[in-house]
Design a protein that fits this description.
Length: about 425
């Protein structure tokens, strides 16, 4: 018996998106702001393959990402391959690979799509695009100051105001220091507590406290006090005297003070900010929407001075971040900051009479040579329907092309928004479209 074939599903794979033209328009808008702002700071674009050897992530990413979230497979040659879940190991590999030929400091950016096997939910999908901005070769706080300023400028370029977002800043050094010297945890205990802090926002408060108590016993209360504080002085008072510099507090103070001086007002010191990746070594930061509807971070990044040693290379100081397309889209949508759709096509030419098709083609080709984006509608539709079709595609102008136009060389350019019409010769059309 011949079995009837089941119909294929038109849905995309779970957790990824199709971009129909209106969505692609938004995506391109998000990318265009990314490029414009980072290039205004002198950053150069790089790229790499989506595929990486799995071992790249085993060494120093995060347990959660490697064990639970990677898309990994064995290729036909028996190699273990992973679809990149982030770009930082790739860029570190690339910098290590050519470090002798590259001139430092590097200011690099890329816009990769990355894959993580997460539970799809608001702000979290299985494929997203990230703007990655990284600076290599500067060990002092100048990287932090430039890159966090750039992150703030990105938000402003989308039309965000200070009160719309919050820049949370912490330091891995501070937390490591406090866990070791104030709460007297050994390395294993400190890493358990770090992981717990990293999961804090995903848990009920009571459950978090219960697990903290299990690890910290009688020190839990003062631990929670430090963790929930937004005040640097609370953290400083937990330290013994003269330990501010050793603990990384000095770096946070410098970053907060200098950025505030530059007019960045929405900085918040956040001791509970851990960042999931193992490679961070100093200042870390995340940007959050202040609207509680969007709970996921918009950006995340930090200093990672030791990643290049994985490739047997001398370390190079590095600081950078990634900003996701899904979360910024939610942010812009919530605040009505998304641009409305507009077509890249400047004019539609509505053909009347198939006998004029070749001449109409010549006409549209001359316009294209002049740099005009033009669609030739040679369908069987009536001319009125062709005009409606152009309007539906949001093409702003229409020229009807028939026997009369082919003979006279005079063209009526109609503005579909205002209804205004002007009659001009071929070489004047471009200037009418620009007006
Ligand atoms: P991350 O915090 O994992 O950092 O990701 C950066 C941003 O990507 C997040 O703040 C969020 O906007 C977006 N993002 C992450 N996962 C998802 C997801 N499943 N769905 C949608 N958006 C998501 C990194 O990836 C580091 N490699 C950043 C970095 C660059 N550090 C130094 N340089």
């Amino acid at each position: 018996m011949i079995q009837k074939k089941a119909k294929l599903d038109t849905e995309s794979y779970k957790g990824v998106r199709d971009f129909y033209p209106p969505e692609m328009f938004i995506q391109n808008y998000i990318f265009s702001v990314w490029r414009r702002v980072v290039e205004s700071y002198g950053y150069e674009e790089y790229g790499a393959s989506i595929l990486e050897p799995t071992e790249l992530y085993k060494a120093k990413t995060s347990d959660e990402i490697v064990q639970e979230q990677t898309y990994s497979f064995t290729d036909r040659g028996g190699r273990d391959v992973t679809l990149r879940p982030e770009m930082t190991p790739t860029v570190a590999r690339m910098v290590a690979g050519k470090r002798r030929e590259l001139t430092f400091p590097l200011r690099w950016y890329s816009i990769p799509n990355v894959f993580r096997y997460e539970k799809p939910q608001r702000g979290r999908l299985r494929e997203h695009w990230q703007l990655n901005v990284d600076m290599f070769g500067i060990a002092d706080m100048k990287s932090e100051l430039e890159v966090i300023s750039l992150a703030s400028a990105l938000m402003k370029s989308y039309g965000a105001k200070d009160e719309d977002f919050e820049i949370r800043v912490n330091s891995r050094k501070v937390m490591n220091y406090i866990l070791k010297n104030v709460f007297e945890l050994d390395q294993e205990g400190a890493s358990k507590v770090s992981r717990l802090i990293d999961r804090k926002d995903k848990m009920e408060a009571g459950e978090f406290e219960r697990q903290a108590e299990h690890l910290l016993e009688e020190k839990t209360e003062s631990f929670l006090h430090v963790l929930n504080s937004k005040d640097l002085d609370v953290v400083i008072s937990a330290l013994k005297s003269n330990e501010e510099e050793k603990s990384g507090i000095g770096e946070i103070k410098e970053v907060l003070l200098k950025l505030e001086k530059k007019g960045i007002k929405n900085l918040v010191f956040s001791p509970a900010l851990m960042r999931g990746f193992d490679y961070y070594t100093g200042i870390v930061f995340e940007i959050f929407d202040t609207n509680p509807q969007n709970r996921r971070a918009l950006f995340g990044g930090g200093r990672y001075d030791n990643l290049l040693s994985l490739f047997g290379e001398e370390n190079i100081p590095a600081f950078g971040f990634a900003m996701g397309d899904v979360t910024i889209r939610d942010f812009l949508e919530t605040r009505n900051l998304l641009p409305s759709f507009s077509s890249k096509t400047q004019v539609a030419v509505a053909l009347i009479g198939d006998e004029n098709f070749e001449k109409a083609q010549e006409f549209t080709e001359s316009l294209r040579k002049d740099g005009v984006n033009v669609l030739l509608d040679s369908s069987d539709k009536k001319v009125g329907d062709k005009i409606k079709f152009a309007d539906k595609l949001k093409i702003p102008y229409v020229i009807v092309y028939g026997e009369e136009e082919s003979k006279s060389g005079q063209y009526k350019v109609k503005n579909l928004k205002t209804g205004e019409e002007v009659v001009v010769e071929l070489d004047k059309i471009k200037s009418v479209l620009k007006a």
